[in-house]
Specification:
Residues 13-96 form the CARD domain. InterPro entries: CARD, DEATH-like_dom_sf. This is CARD domain-containing protein. One of its GO terms (biological process) is regulation of apoptotic process. With 104 residues, this protein is mostly helical. The protein has a single domain (11-92), classed as Death Domain, Fas. It is built from six helices and no strands. It has helices spanning 17-23, 26-38, 44-51, 55-69, 71-84, 86-92. It is globular, with a radius of gyration of 13 Å.
Length: 104
């Protein structure tokens, strides 16, 4: 369908991994971890492992955990980023070359 190109907020987590790691704040990461755990996307053990890291390593761990879990997990994380930090979400969604949601 052609409305895919009109949809905003469709970006690949893999394509914005570096930008996510660079820009996400520690409080946003903590909230994202809580939400991912609450939704069952990550386990308590995965959450505890990520919480032991510094901010940049924690961001790496969060995005990589979610990427390994597939497209549903990626969609959840994107939704949570949009809810928790709309400014970060807009920063991640700035690539004009991407018109449709990629698999992750």
């Amino acid at each position: 369908q052609s409305d895919q190109n009109a949809t905003i907020g469709e970006f690949s987590l893999q394509s914005v991994r570096y930008k996510f790691i660079e820009k996400v704040s520690k409080p946003t990461l903590e909230t994202l971890l809580d939400l991912l755990l609450q939704k069952g996307v990550i386990t308590d053990e995965e959450m505890q492992s990520a919480q032991r890291e510094n901010r940049a390593q924690q961001a790496r761990e969060v995005i990589d955990m979610v990427l390994r879990k597939g497209s549903e997990a990626c969609a959840e994380l994107k939704t949570f980023i949009q809810e928790v930090d709309p400014f970060l979400y807009r920063q991640l969604d700035c690539s004009p070359s991407q018109g449709s949601l990629q698999s992750c």
